[in-house]
Queue: 3 jobs
Job 1
Amino acid sequence: MDHTETLLDIQDLRVEFPISIGTVRAVQGVSLTLKRGEVMGLVGESGCGKSTLGFSLLRLLRPPGRIASGRILYHGRDIVAMEEKELLAVRGTGIAMIFQDPLTSLNPLMSISEHFVETLRTHEKGISRHDALERAGGMLESLGIGTNRLHEYPHQMSGGMRQRIMIGLALIMKPDLLVADEPTTALDVIVEAQFLDLLQTLRESLNLAIILITHNLGNVAQLSDRITVMYGGTIAEVAPAQALFDEPLHPYTQGLLASIPNIRLEQPRLHTMPGSTPDLVDPPSGCIFHPRCGRAMDICSRQRPPAFLRNGHEVSCWLYGDAP
Amino acid sequence: MNEELIRVDRLTMHFPLQKGLLANLFVREKRFVHAVNSVSFAIAKGEVLGLVGESGSGKTTTGRMILRLLEPTAGEVFYKQDNITAYSARDMECIREKMQVIFQDPFASLSPRMSIGDAISHPLKIHGLAKGAAARDMTLAIMEKVGLSPAPFLYRKYPHQISGGQRQRAVIARALITRPDFVVADEPIAMADVSVRAMILDLMAQLKEEFELTYLFITHDLATCKYICDHIAIMYLGRIVEIGPLRSVFSNPVHPYTATLLDAVPVPDPRYRRTHRMPRGEIPSPIDLPPGCSFHTRCPFARESCRVEVPALTEVGGAHAVACPVRAGSRGS
């Protein structure tokens, strides 16, 4: 990989939530890189740490959550070590984030235009109201929303439209990375499809890098360049989208893929995975997936597997390499 | 077709809009949310009907009216040819043990103060079916059947002490302990994680055979229908727009809305490209329903007549019926 092209470089990130009964190890040593303009699907079940990882990128973790160790290099600068002032400049203008529920992300007492004016004035001191509204109008148009709706309030808009407003607010400062945390989970299926189409158009026209966090592998299949599968706060597998679907290597990825319904395929039955997701206060020893894994070996319960390179996949599983 | 177990005839639910006191006093015209508008279908014994639609399509309201958890504005529900809409509350109580329900959120469906075993055996007490050791034995037996094992150990656990998948199993066990023959499953897997979903679906299919159950399977997810439903009905703004055998509807969707909905389902395959353009806009308000066919505002095939007349369901062959004269007619049949 051309190093100058690297936009984001996460190195051995650990995130913890100290709570009364112990410490939840939500992210346990995650390393990941993202290139300029690349779309990364970040997939996993609830509690796997995917949203925590997303929030860490902007240091938006709610206390008592904290980054315990590791580095997040964005354009070579470490977000973990940044001063508050520098961080504020990165938020919005460099990295922007959108969330699952657009209604709770918008202020019900502010019109759409006020949302845009506030965002623009926060980052560009001295921009006139007129200019701000002009920019907002242009953004709405590119999102397929009439500029006449600029003065409406969030409750006057449908769910899909609100989510488009969110993306408009996120992109108005022209960031080069968008972190989208389950952006379509609250939307109905047709609106969801419309929204994913919009994301596709935007990434092409803006050369935008996107981290698309979702529990739905179907959502990321067509949009992502690469897909990261997380399990129990660790990365199980990273691979180019096509390769991941064609030849999943990690037993967890295999199980996950086989248990999602595909409307275009003849599958008489869905695969079921035994057991349930791990307790992250007291995670299993060795590979976190080993208690549910049908191919677990001796070493799996003793030692955490590193990421092995195999056919373009990075797979953290002892089936693909030996202990050093 | 097997013997008919449930039939719904022109079922309708209009919720009056709650306004402020002054508006109630001075505004004469009452407004309504037209949640369900004259829905009719039948479910044969041992069959699974999938009721599919987006939020606000009226699918949950329909399920609730069948169980009389909501009193319909109009229309009738027949259980074994008997009109249960006319039943008194007392009569209704007697047949409730035969008609059960599973809701979406298992956590909200279980009392946090009741152990899993007590919750599952509770219906036996309510319906006076068993008590004491007999009730406990029946509970342990059904717990093993739904995969809650070891049952004696889990019997004493409270909802917060078990996993989400186990909670949904407990809810299923509670619904089945009275040996119902009809179960309304309202989005039973929507809250579950991917790996748990497959398990619950599998369990429901297996229990259906074992207990000779008939399901109304309410869902927004067409893809999961494939694994459990025999027939599906597609709802849009409180009306059924297409109904028929699953295979027939999936392979040959006739209504433009069904075709769009099928095409919008995310496909876990990077090579896949959608064939249809998604329609612009979203579902109109159920308060002021569009005149004529509710879908005409978004339909690429809409004609003048669609804005005037509400299309009736017309058979297009093999129990497959569609409420779209334009597309049904153009099939050259």
Job 2
Amino acid sequence: MLEGFGPIVRKDLRLELRSGESTVALLSLSTLILVVMVLVFGPGGARRAEVAAGALWLALIFAGTMGSTRALVAERETGCIRALLLSPVEPGTIYAAKLSVAMIFMAEAGAGVLLILVLFFNLEFGRALLSLIPVFLLGILGLAALCTLLATVSGRVRGGAMLLPVLVVPLFIPALIAGSKASAAVLSGQPLGSVITWIKLLCAFDVLFVAAGYLLFEHVILED
Amino acid sequence: MADVLLQAQRVAKFFGDRPVLHALDFSARGGEAAVIVGRNGVGKSTLIRVLCGLARPSAGRLLLFGREPTTLAAPEFRRIGVLLHQTLLYPNLSARENLEFYSRIFGIVDCAAHALRWLERVGLSRAAEQPVTALSRGMEQRLAIARAMLADPDLILLDEPFAALDADGAALVTALIREALARSAAVIFTAHSPLEIMGVDLGLFKLEGGALSPFKEDGRRGPLRSLLRRL
């Protein structure tokens, strides 16, 4: 069922290693957003955990929408997506590969963002930061699923890259609330078990958008 | 008689309100070759995209191997080879990496050796490690043709395969078309002017005003036709 998944992912990662386009876009944009957040709210204060969690998600959502779907957008620009659609690879598998690549780019940028976050907000490397990892991974899975599907839709219109955040952000709000609340809680020292409701919401969001993307990709990618 | 591999029944295509193709009837059997001739902008590329199942017809019915393209099982796409205006090659991958990648997703065994064989076949062995961005337009076209023919497809649709090719390149394409026909593949391609390939019974069609009709000889020979007659 996932025949062709591995070669597509490996090819996208190889292309990224050569150009670095997505990594540079994601890291520079997310760093900029973090710097702005630190300048506006200050690094310390009683609500440090909440501000740090908000900054993390804000950086991820905007950098993610701008940079993570670069592989898919480039594939459209060169027309290579047509060759994939005319190959024995299932459209759902192409979606799964593109989603995985977007998630890898986001995770890579997220690791950088977390490091900067620790430095900017004087957070401690420790259990709180480790507890943040599952929340963070669930969040980027949902965001990558949504971005990959909507980049396919926005790629059909002129200036679609600018349209993507407008489409993604409203739909991502439930996951954004869950992710930022759970992140703030674990960063302030609460155990992961105390945010299980938010984690369940993130899981539900992921299942919904991964399944929707897998099933709808074939219909939105085909030409009129 | 060979199976009908492609059948277009009253196929039409509109872009918005603008009709590009009108109620076309067309079919191709294994071992048959057809060339569709037409001026620039007449809809040849659109026709190829519709016939390979990449673009949906606005009206009518298209059958590939007896089934509608949307109901074709993914492995059936191994049987279709398509060359479009865009070369469908990754600019930052080398010629070898491109063919290896496509061999892999087409499930070809020993894809590295297969890619090298095809590079040699299209005369690009020396340029194997060059990125596509460094290739000339003619070399890129050769590589694109290799990509389309890589899996020995049964149905081959080529949009202006002779574009940007020199005499050797044109000879290469005619040889590949002959080989494909010899193994009972159907080959449909487009061209600006009518042409002949020695030893090949080529169906000539003219696309004009969105309608497809058998091409009638008017005594004129374009430079491409004269060249191919010699090959």
Job 3
Amino acid sequence: MTEKKFDPVIVGFFCNWCTSAAADLAGTSRLHYPASIRPIRVMCSSTVDPVYLVRALQEGADATILGGCHPGDCHYITGNYKARRRVAIVKTVLKSLGFDDTRVLLEWISGSEGPKFARVMNEYTDYIKKRGPSDFKYLDSLGGEKVD
Amino acid sequence: MTENEMLKKFIKDAFEKGLIEAVMAPSATQDSYTYALITKKEDVDKLTPIAPVMQWNGADMIRRITKLKKSERKLLAILRPCESRTYKELVKFNQINPENIIVLTYDCPGTVHARNYKYEPTSSEKLIEEMKSGKISNKIRESCSVCEYPTPIKGVGDIGLGIVNTTEPVFFSLSDKGKEFLAGMGINEGERDDSSWVKLHRDNREKWLKEERITGGRKGLEEFLSSCLNCHNCKDMCPICFCKECFFEDHSVFDYESNKFYNWADDKDGIRLPTDKSLFHVGRLIHMGTSCIGCGLCQQACPMDIPLYRLFGIVGNDLQKVFNYKPGVNDDIPPVMDFREDELHEFEGLFGGEE
């Protein structure tokens, strides 16, 4: 199983108004981005309870992305500021316990930034490929080798 | 006169002067102490205002009293310093209505683990004696020996009782409400120096924060929680976990078709059941870590003796540092209820906001 090329699973929670629109734009502009991204459209980045992020990591994702509008551009005025605090909490908890906190990514991508969307997804997938499979998904399992 | 007798006299006087109509304070049971609510002066002798055991967090009890409506009678609550900080934190979270409530807190000698007390009873007088001699008792709970604020703080609670570094215990006010109350009682405010008692604990804490940290990611966490029963007692005892419905109690969230389980078992070379054991603790850390007061009741409640306060206290400390927030000691808004427009850029993007 280990000989197989590592193909990461990255779960993306994308806000309806910005990052999801950017994903659409990247698609219609025929920009290439990796199939390892599994997008989930949410109404706002702040609707994502931080536990969803770690839960995705435990259930098998190698990384998660939370995409929202740029600060100041939130459709609900202040949602993305709250999301930022939540991501800060998740990352701090992961780091504090000795997990890899780069497995949670917060990005601001507006609806017009299709190229940025494709670039971020490519870069992040490459980065995760280099890091290897996530340790967190083996929490409470019998498998998994020593990773980061 | 012992501190307990002095406090009882204080309560009786307050009843006589009509300043209070009810008191909430610990009362002895066969093997332990629980909080008791009394409304008559004759019942005061049933109380032990300073108990050697903390079975529940008193602020959680006040939350239950004022859950539906503000306190209709003037209530005097005798709380430990950690409980008074919890009280303050719960007021911020709109879980307690502070109207008509006076909180009295004191220099805390620490508490004994409830189970140890059952088999090896001690008295608060003994603990206070050790405190007066400037020594942290070796009988007290881990969280008490590394307490960051073992004495009353200005602005947290209303009245303080100073016990350390003074021949006679002294009362002092912590708020305007308390000042008025003490004036009504005809008590002169005293002063005492608590810095040495606080320093003892802080030194312990510094060492503890460094030495007891859980590291090693998955391996470290699994080892630490290896005997966890998933009973959720730590959550039930936590005063900050006040949600009516807990994400982790709603089992339908974790309902999956059987194939999901088999697929996980395929992918992960076998899974342990239930699947949300460690996730529960990580999730709880994320939800309440920023407001962890440090009462250590999670650890006391653990039937498997997992030193949970090392998890919640140390990670909580890291979280609170990120937001420069100290729960329950001042009027700052809890991090989960607040935001700034220009902050935390180091958590944006892959390499800390460089774009």
